[in-house]
Design a protein that fits this description.
alpha+beta; 2 domains; four-stranded antiparallel sheet
Length: about 190
Amino acid sequence: MQECKLTSKDELTNLLKDKGIDTWKEAIEFVRCLPYGRNSNRTDFKLVISEQKGSCSSKHAMLKKLADVNDIPNIKLILGMYQMNETNTPKIGNVLTKNNLDFIPEAHCYLNIDRKNIDITTTESNFKKFENDIIEELEIQPEQVVEFKVNYHKEFIKKWIKETKSELEFNQVWSIREKCIKSLAQ
């Protein structure tokens, strides 16, 4: 992984420098060690630093933004749709079992650094855990983790319900998904 100095004078970079973080590699490790959790405002990526937590979306979007303002090359923000199941996401097993589901389509953000996918959501995160369960991927910009990601995910689930002829309705699937996400934060 690149050992690039953080040289930008922007607010995001300065917040990290105030914490003694001077390089891209240090920023990645700092973010990786923060607990998983949703931030109070999905559009303000600086909250990952000030609230000391973040989701896959906020953490990876913040790092992509940091890479952009510091001219760090070959960093892409990826939105991947994958089959979230008990094997690749053990904490959700009970929720899926109670609802008779083997998996649920989940939208997950991660970085592609020098053509290698890396998940920095938590210290236990490992892209290899779910790489074989990826359904599709697309490159997005940091601002797209807010509305675009949610809308894309919802439309994907609606299409999945239709294609699989599921007896569940969209609101039921989305509610099950929210319970899964809640179990991840515990």
